[in-house]
Design a protein that fits this description.
The protein has one domain. It has a two-stranded parallel sheet. It is globular. The protein has five helices and two strands. The protein is mainly α. Helix 1 packs across helix 5.
C-alpha cells in the first residue's frame, strides 16, 4: 500500500515532505516562497509552517548542517519569516552554504529524528 503524507499530517511527517522539496531547491540554487510551498503541500494558505519548518531548522542546527529552511522566503521581502530564529550574520552567505552542501549525499532524516530534534530544542 502506498502511503501519502496526507495520511499522517504530523509536523514531523510534513518536515520529511518539506525536506525533499528544500533539498531539490538547494540543488537548483533556488528559494521558494511560503505560498508556493503551501501549494505544493496542498495547503490552503501559507501561515502553517512554523512548527513544520522548525523541525527542519532544529535538526540542521543540532547536526551542524547549513540552515536549509533559509530557502523558504516571504514573497515580498525575499527573506525568511519570523519563525527562522537562527542567528546568521549574512543571509546571502548562509544561503550559499545551503546551495553548496551535498544534500543528496545525506540519508534523509526520519520523522523520529525530526521529532527528537524538536523536543531537544524545546527543552
Amino acid at each position: 500500500m502506498i502511503k501519502k503524507f496526507d495520511d499522517n499530517p504530523s509536523n514531523a511527517s510534513r518536515a520529511v515532505q518539506i525536506w525533499q522539496i528544500l533539498i531539490s531547491k538547494a540543488h537548483n540554487r533556488q528559494t521558494i516562497t511560503y505560498g508556493i510551498l503551501a501549494d505544493l503541500l496542498g495547503f490552503e494558505r501559507a501561515g502553517v509552517f512554523a512548527y513544520k519548518l522548525g523541525h527542519i531548522m532544529h535538526f540542521c542546527t543540532q547536526n551542524n548542517l547549513p540552515h536549509l529552511t533559509i530557502l523558504v522566503v516571504n514573497e515580498k521581502t525575499g527573506k525568511p519569516g519570523d519563525g527562522f530564529t537562527e542567528i546568521v550574520e549574512d543571509l546571502n552567505v548562509e544561503r550559499e552554504k545551503v546551495f553548496k552542501h551535498n544534500w543528496y549525499g545525506l540519508y534523509p532524516p526520519s520523522e523520529k529524528q525530526f521529532d527528537e530534534a524538536w523536543q531537544k530544542a524545546k527543552n
